[in-house]
Amino acid sequence: MNLALIIVIVIAIILAIVGGLNTALNWLLWVAIIVGVIALIAFLLRVVRGGSRT
Questions:
Q1: How far is CA 10 from CA 7, 15, 16, 20, in A?
Q2: What are 3-41's pLDDT values in tens digits?
Q3: What is the C-alpha separation between 26 and 16, in angstroms, rounded?
Q4: Residue 36 Cα to chain centre, angstroms
Q5: Coil, strand, or helix at residue 50?
Q6: Partner of 16 at 20 to 30 A CA spacing, among 1, 10, 40, 51?
Q7: What global pTM score does this model have?
């Protein structure tokens, strides 16, 4: 009985970690998309205004 309880606890911990990582990666994906859109807008504004190349 103890072995089954330990196995269930280990599986629960692994599932909790995987679920947390999934949520964190999903959040980071949205942050990356937003930063990419902001960078694209900044690049387009620079091109339209004829910014100097450095």
A1: 5, 9, 10, 15
A2: 888 899 999 999 888 888 888 889 999 999 999 999 999
A3: 15
A4: 13
A5: coil
A6: 1
A7: 0.61
